[in-house]
Amino acid sequence: MKEDQNTPIVEVFTGTPWEAELVKGLLESAGIQAALKDDNFGSLAPSMSINLGPGGMRVLVSAEDYETAVQLVETREEKPK
Question: Cα torsion for 5, 59, 35, 67, to the nearest 10°?
Fold first, then answer.
């Protein structure tokens, strides 16, 4: 993700490390740059983190991509009828 001090970074998803990786991949495949953030030990070694607590792993995107990213995440979470 490009670092631009004028463009805020916003959260679009929070979940387990593997869910966050899937969402990040989904967003990147749609051309949206995404980053992962974890305030716990898991940020240093995600594969070693067992309990991330209530916050979990966060997926962040540029505020410019927020609406599109949220739509993609929501579409991913919809179950087929």
Answer: -60
Measured between alpha carbons, how far is 26 from 45 in angstroms, rounded to an integer? 22
pLDDT score of 37 more than 90: yes
Residue 68 contacts residue 27 (beta carbons within 8 Å): no
- Is the full-model pTM beyond 0.85? no
> Dihedral (C-alpha) 74, 76, 78, 81: value to the nearest 10 degrees?
150
Q: How many domains does the chain have?
A: 1
Task: Report residue 71 as tokens.
Answer: 């739509």
Phi-psi sector, 79: left (phi>0), alpha (psi -120 to 50), beta = beta
Q: What is the CATH number of the domain that holds 41?
A: 3.30.70
Q: Cβ neighbours of residue 24 under 8 Å, at least 6 residues apart? A: 34, 35, 36, 59
